[in-house]
Amino acid sequence: MPIQRLSGDPFELGKTLGRLGRDAVQHELTATTLWAQIQAARHHPAVARMAATTQRHFPSVWAELEGLAAGLQLPLEQVLAWNCRGELLADTADGCTSVQLPGESPLIAHNEDGLPCLRGHCFMVDVEPAQGQGFTAFCYPGSLPGHTFAFTRQGLVQTVNNLRLAAFSPNVPRMVLGRAVLNQSSLADAVALLRRFPDSAGFHFTLAAPATGEILSVEFGGGEVSVRSVTEPRVHANHALHHRTGQAAQQITQSSFDRQQRGEALLAAGLRDPLALLHDTGGEGLPILRLAPDDPDEENTLATVVFELDPKGLRWRLYEPPERT
């Protein structure tokens, strides 16, 4: 997968992101049922509320959204709504599985699961912004960076999983927070940012610092932020494992349940090869590697990344899964 080099102010960055994803959005994404659901008039008040919050607290991200809309040649209101999709619908096509392997040679690995129609349309960006931190990220057409997997020049690694929280009143989009995290200079700053703005939909972040090997599991949204230090091998699918509000009221799909159970079983059996774990298709339930055309969540694995955390420098490998069989 080629890496697109981007630079400029926030509007210019957003506009370039929009141009890179324009064809896929206009010919694939806008034809989906999910896009139509997100654009429904009943969501307009919530979108307006989150627009005001984003403009007030995250002006550079807002400018990036304006540029994104310009590059996509779509109304800003539609693009903003799409980037608020987790706040507008509890069930969106944002799956994913993350593996956390601390120790002497710590690793983080991640399956990026999304809409099958976007297979072949996603891209990597290497960003040198006029303001904020430089970063490299996996991008979906029409979406801000920071809700998939990324790493920054300041030594922060981020992988992201969807949490389907059942009841919340959002004031800021979780995807705006994900993008803002990429501007933070440390794990502590990233966590502090999330604690300031807990009223979003749910996400799980694996955050790590290659310089120290420290790995954090952060579940947030619905007014709560839960942070756990990862000191033993863990796997995380798409439901809250330590977020109290989420554990009390969340939607757990069969795929998320089965991937979590299968991943934990493989770790308990001693498997430590992240690619073997994330590309596993065994077990009695739905598989970790998702290639089925009839996936019940309407998601497929679009990419797999493995990050090796090393004080001398981050090493990473990107894999595109095989085609469906």
UniProtKB/TrEMBL annotation:
InterPro entries hit by this protein? C45_proenzyme-like, Peptidase_C45, Peptidase_C45_hydrolase
| The keyword Transferase appears for this protein | yes
Under the GO molecular function aspect, what terms does this record hold?
A: transferase activity
Could you tell me which Gene3D superfamilies the record lists for this protein?
Penicillin V Acylase, Chain A (3.60.60.10)
Keywords noted in UniProt: Transferase
Q: Domain Peptidase C45 hydrolase spans what residues?
A: 105-318
Pfam family, any one: AAT
NCBIfam families cross-referenced by the UniProt entry = C45_proenzyme
- The protein depicted here goes by the name 6-aminopenicillanic acid acyl-transferase
